[in-house]
C-alpha cells in the first residue's frame, strides 16, 4: 500500500488555507485525503477555519464564536495569501462537503473538531447529525486535540474511523487505542522523529510533513499517511520512493 498523502487545510502551501480553492487544488494535485478544521459561529453554523479567531487569515478581527454566519461571510479569506484570491470567502462545512461530493472526491476526509481551546456547546452533535444525513463518496475520519470530543463523537458514531491527534502527550492516544476508540495516531512529525526507535505498532499519519527530508523519511518507512501543506510535491517524492 502507498502512503496516503493528506492535504493539510487543502493545498495550504500554495493556496489560501481552508478555502474551496485550496481543497480544489489538493484534488487537482492528486491528494489521497483532505484535512480540515471545524468551529461553530455565534448562530450555530459549522465553520471551516483553523484558528479560533479570524485575524490571521481574513481582513477581520475577533473570535468565530462571537460572529454570525452573515458576518463571517463578509470577510475576505484569500487576499492575505495573494491579490489573485481577493474575495475568497470562509466556507461552511456544508459548502465543503457539497463541493467534495460535486468533485466526486473518493479519498479520506479528516475533519478535526477544534474544541481544545473553546468547547463549542453541542458541536459534536451538530457535526454528527449533519454528516449522518449526507451520502458521501469519501471516507470520514474524525480527530481532535480535545479527548472529550472524541469520546462524544465515538458515542454518536461508533462505526466511523477516529484518530488521536497530539504533539507530545500520548496518554489519551494510548488509552483510546487500547479501548479501540481510535484506529490511527496523528502525531507531530517532531514527536515521530524523537521516538523513531520506539514507534508504536499503530497506523501513523504525522503532521505537518513539509520538508523533503521528512517526506522521504515517512515514505521510506511506509507510514499509513502524511499530512502536508504540499501534496503536489509529496506525490512526486512518493513516486520516486514507493512507485505507483
TrEMBL record:
Which GO terms label this protein's molecular function in UniProt? glycerophosphodiester phosphodiesterase activity
Q: Which organism is it from?
A: Pediococcus damnosus
A Gene Ontology annotation in the biological process aspect, one of them, is: lipid metabolic process
Q: PANTHER family, per this entry?
A: GLYCEROPHOSPHODIESTER PHOSPHODIESTERASE, CYTOPLASMIC, GLYCEROPHOSPHORYL DIESTER PHOSPHODIESTERASE
Keywords tagged on the record: Hydrolase
Kindly report, in one word, the top-level EC class recorded for this enzyme.
hydrolase
* Domain of life the protein comes from: Bacteria
Q: Which InterPro entries match?
A: GP_PDE_dom, PLC-like_Pdiesterase_TIM-brl
Under which name does UniProt file this protein?
Answer: Glycerophosphoryl diester phosphodiesterase
Annotated GP-PDE domain ranges read 3-238
The record's EC number reads: 3.1.4.46
- Does the keyword Magnesium belong to this entry? no
Amino acid at each position: 500500500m502507498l502512503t496516503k498523502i493528506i492535504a493539510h487545510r487543502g493545498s495550504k502551501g500554495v493556496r489560501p488555507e481552508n478555502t474551496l480553492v485550496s481543497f480544489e487544488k489538493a484534488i487537482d494535485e492528486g491528494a489521497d485525503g483532505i484535512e480540515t478544521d471545524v468551529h461553530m459561529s455565534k448562530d450555530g453554523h459549522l465553520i471551516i477555519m483553523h484558528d479560533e479567531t479570524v485575524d490571521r487569515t481574513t481582513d477581520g478581527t475577533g473570535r468565530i464564536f462571537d460572529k454570525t454566519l452573515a458576518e463571517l461571510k463578509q470577510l475576505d479569506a484569500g487576499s492575505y495569501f495573494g491579490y489573485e484570491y481577493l474575495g475568497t470567502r470562509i466556507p461552511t462545512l456544508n459548502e465543503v462537503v457539497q463541493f467534495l461530493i460535486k468533485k466526486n472526491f473518493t479519498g479520506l476526509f479528516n475533519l478535526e473538531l477544534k474544541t481544545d481551546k473553546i468547547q463549542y456547546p453541542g458541536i459534536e452533535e451538530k457535526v454528527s447529525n449533519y454528516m449522518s444525513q449526507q451520502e458521501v463518496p469519501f471516507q470520514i475520519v474524525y480527530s481532535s486535540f480535545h479527548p472529550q470530543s472524541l469520546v462524544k463523537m465515538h458515542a454518536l458514531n461508533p462505526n466511523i474511523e477516529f484518530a488521536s491527534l497530539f504533539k507530545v502527550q500520548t496518554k489519551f492516544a494510548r488509552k483510546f487505542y487500547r479501548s479501540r476508540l481510535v484506529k490511527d495516531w496523528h502525531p507531530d512529525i517532531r514527536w515521530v522523529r524523537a521516538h523513531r526507535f520506539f514507534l508504536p505498532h499503530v497506523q501513523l499519519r504525522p503532521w505537518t510533513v513539509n520538508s523533503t527530508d521528512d517526506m522521504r523519511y515517512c515514505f521510506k518507512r511506509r507510514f499509513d499517511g502524511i499530512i502536508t501543506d504540499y501534496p503536489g510535491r509529496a506525490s512526486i517524492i512518493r513516486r520516486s520512493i514507493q512507485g505507483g
